Amino acid sequence: MAKKTITIEQTGSAIRRPKDQHATLAGLGLGKLRRRRTLEDTPAVRGMINKVQHMVRIVED
Fold this sequence. Notes:
Elements: E1 5-10, H1 19-27, E2 36-40, H2 43-51, E3 56-59
Antiparallel strand pairs: 1-2, 1-3
């Protein structure tokens, strides 16, 4: 059975954001605008996305 994945794209800058939000973006593998990452869809990843939801979007493939 294939694991469910989710693709996210960074849409907002991390400049002038709290350090924990910088760290969350880095943990997601992001850091530059328009960068995309495909990650395993787990509750931990969903929580990280929720924390920086104003700077990322979920890409529908």
